[in-house]
């Protein structure tokens, strides 16, 4: 368990959106930031890391940094505004 990401990210495949695989959080996912806790709600959709398809064989969108993707996507979504 990582203290920045105390929860295990739980996802289900949610289909294809804009040419990328999409995953849905099946449980809330928390991140401990410098300014406090951020919780991404269950049901939020993410496409993983934003990596051009040509590089997927080297850097998978669902690689070891996948936990950061829903946090990033949530912060840049309309949900967080």
What distinguishing features does this structure have?
mainly beta, three-stranded antiparallel beta sheet, two-stranded antiparallel ribbon, 5 strands
Could you please describe the fold and organization of this structure?
By secondary structure, this protein is mainly beta. The protein has one domain (11-80). The protein has one helix at residues 68-75, and strands spanning 11-17, 20-25, 29-33, 36-40, 45-46.
Query: What's the overall average pLDDT, rounded?
Result: 83
Number of strands: 5
Which consecutive residue ranges, at least 5 long each, have pLDDT under 50? none
* Proportion of residues in β-strands: 25-35%
Shape: globular
The main pleated sheet reads as:
3 strands, antiparallel
| Distance N to C terminus | 29 Å
Overall number of domains: 1
Strand order of the largest sheet: 1-2-5
Q: Helix count, per DSSP?
A: 1
Global structural class: mainly beta
Helix-strand string: EEEEEH
Radius of gyration: 13 Å
Helix content: under 10%
Give a short summary of the structure.
This protein is mainly beta.
Write the layout of secondary structure elements.
Blueprint: E1 11-17, E2 20-25, E3 29-33, E4 36-40, E5 45-46, H1 68-75
Antiparallel strand pairs: 1-2, 2-5, 3-4
